[in-house]
Amino acid sequence: MTNFNSEHKAVLDELLLRHPHVRPGKIFGFPAYYTGGKLCICLYEQGVGVKLPELSAAKLLATDGNIVPFRPMGKPKMREWVQINLSRPEDYRQYESVFEESIGYVLAQHNK
Length: 112
Prior knowledge:
This protein has 3 helices and 6 strands; from the N terminus they run αββββαββα. With 112 residues, it is of the alpha+beta class. The chain has a 6-stranded antiparallel beta sheet with strand order 1-2-3-4-6-5. It is globular. 29% of the residues are buried.
């Protein structure tokens, strides 16, 4: 059974589903957000996985204590993915620019 914070999902739905290129879906049984048919953001356990350019991911990992490598199902860390771990759902609003970067990055990859 998948476990995620439904309050986190409510905030992410509000932030992400208003974007014209974002569609809801699922990955690993968890709620996810797709752009251009590709996964860009997903809830995973008590955090949120985000795909970013490799340099952006590395910078966030080095400078933000709320961000860890994204390792779904115990897999090795993924170089373009990070996981944001926050206890208060509303705090995800502070990462709206990170989510926008993810959407733009994945959409640009799709349109190449």
